[in-house]
């Protein structure tokens, strides 16, 4: 389901930034979507840590086929060797299993986070082993569909900003953060379009 703010965000971004205007015009009728499943989103983010979107998709597809669907109970019922055989590192198997245990115990309850601000949710999520700030930010964007998240540790975002704004030259984190101020309060939307420009398939978590 398209976020309620999407059309307004696109109009304001296009009006403020010619690069955004071109990107938004390039992908009409497309938007961020949520799977509506907190465990699915966080598990997909764990799988995608520190690897390319293409590599993450490959591992995810193998994991989904092996488990018959990504569910916390199925993760906990699957042996380490089988999980490793899907392409997961030993550490990611540990992280995924710990996340599944949190979910099964009821400690992962996004319903209570709806009124929390972004930083409070990030703090809560990063208390779970294996979930860092980037993974928590993916959750904010793809599950809670928060409109103003700028994931400064995201490789794809940094690459797209370099390509579209700086002739391919990567800029320091502080400069990227400053550039992101132009996109407030719609930095999640700007990030989505920058991701989209790198890959023919929309990024989903």
Automatic annotation (TrEMBL):
<dbReference type="InterPro" id="IPR003265">
    <property type="entry name" value="HhH-GPD_domain"/>
</dbReference>
<dbReference type="GO" id="GO:0032131">
    <property type="term" value="F:alkylated DNA binding"/>
</dbReference>
<dbReference type="Pfam" id="PF00730">
    <property type="entry name" value="HhH-GPD"/>
</dbReference>
<dbReference type="GO" id="GO:0005737">
    <property type="term" value="C:cytoplasm"/>
</dbReference>
<dbReference type="GO" id="GO:0043916">
    <property type="term" value="F:DNA-7-methylguanine glycosylase activity"/>
</dbReference>
<dbReference type="GO" id="GO:0006285">
    <property type="term" value="P:base-excision repair, AP site formation"/>
</dbReference>
<comment type="similarity">
    <text>Belongs to the alkylbase DNA glycosidase AlkA family.</text>
</comment>
<feature type="domain" description="HhH-GPD">
    <location>
        <begin position="47"/>
        <end position="199"/>
    </location>
</feature>
<keyword id="KW-0234">DNA repair</keyword>
<dbReference type="GO" id="GO:0006307">
    <property type="term" value="P:DNA alkylation repair"/>
</dbReference>
<keyword id="KW-0227">DNA damage</keyword>
<dbReference type="GO" id="GO:0008725">
    <property type="term" value="F:DNA-3-methyladenine glycosylase activity"/>
</dbReference>
<protein>
    <recommendedName>
        <fullName>DNA-3-methyladenine glycosylase II</fullName>
        <ecNumber>3.2.2.21</ecNumber>
    </recommendedName>
</protein>
<dbReference type="GO" id="GO:0032993">
    <property type="term" value="C:protein-DNA complex"/>
</dbReference>
<dbReference type="InterPro" id="IPR051912">
    <property type="entry name" value="Alkylbase_DNA_Glycosylase/TA"/>
</dbReference>
<dbReference type="InterPro" id="IPR011257">
    <property type="entry name" value="DNA_glycosylase"/>
</dbReference>
């Amino acid at each position: 389901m398209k976020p309620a703010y999407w059309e307004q965000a696109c109009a304001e971004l296009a009006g403020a930034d010619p690069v955004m205007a071109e990107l938004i015009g390039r992908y009409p009728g497309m938007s961020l979507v949520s799977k509506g499943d907190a465990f699915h989103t966080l598990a997909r983010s764990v799988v995608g840590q520190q690897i390319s979107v293409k590599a993450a998709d490959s591992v995810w597809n193998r994991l989904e086929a092996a488990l018959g669907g990504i569910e916390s109970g199925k993760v906990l019922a699957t042996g380490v060797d089988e999980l490793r055989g899907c392409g997961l590192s030993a550490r990611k198997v540990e992280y995924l299993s710990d996340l599944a245990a949190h979910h099964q115990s009821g400690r992962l309850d996004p319903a209570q986070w709806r009124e929390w601000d972004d930083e409070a949710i990030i703090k809560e999520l990063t208390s779970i082993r294996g979930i860092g700030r980037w993974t928590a930010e993916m959750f904010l964007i793809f599950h809670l569909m928060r409109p103003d998240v700028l994931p400064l540790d995201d490789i794809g975002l940094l690459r797209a900003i370099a390509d579209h704004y700086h002739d391919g030259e990567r800029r320091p984190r502080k400069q990227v953060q400053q550039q992101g101020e132009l996109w407030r309060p719609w930095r999640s939307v700007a990030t989505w379009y920058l991701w989209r420009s790198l890959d023919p398939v929309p990024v989903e978590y």
